[in-house]
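Pipeline run #58 for the internal structure catalog. This entry was flagged by the ingest filter as a single-chain record with no existing model, so it goes straight to prediction. Upstream metadata was stripped on purpose; only the residue string is passed forward. Reviewer on rotation: M.T. Logging verbosity set to normal.
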Amino acid sequence: LLLLMLSASAHADHKELQSLADEDQAARTGQDVARSDDERRHRVLALLGSGAIKTPRDRFNAALVLQHTGLTYCDGALTSLSAENYLLAHHLFRSAFASGIKEAGYLSAAAIDRYLTMTEGYQRYGTNRLIDPETGEERLAPIDRDVTDAERATYGVPPLAELLKRYPEAPRKTPDPK
């Protein structure tokens, strides 16, 4: 990590990554933007693969785009088109957070929660809400009770009791009996 931080200090933030992140955020507010989420994600992955992502802000901007990987319904369940992008976003946000970008803390927790919700059916921190397809009610995906409020606070996530006052928690799915 120290080598990564030292090498990052010798580089300027990547302007295209900033533009991609700005477009991503504009799209979230309903503004017309030049590229789709898919096009932005593909470009970020290409930049990552070419080694162009060097600074903490580059990692933050790349993660911002990657965390918006699309969702679809499959057999009545909401699924990610590429859950691995959430995991990659988590690691990029975590690195940016460790390098001093404070707003990356909550987003790091949110990205791992998205990944776990889509792959394991639960989340660690309590940042991920889903719409119950039967009732239309917004619910928290099941939350890991081993994560402490102190750990949540490290990433800027409210205490569990506060989260549960805001939204009900969906029941944890049990494995099918065989």
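catalog note: The longest helix spans residues 104-119.
catalog note: The beta strands are 71-74, 77-80, 129-131, 138-140.
status: ready for reviewer M.T.
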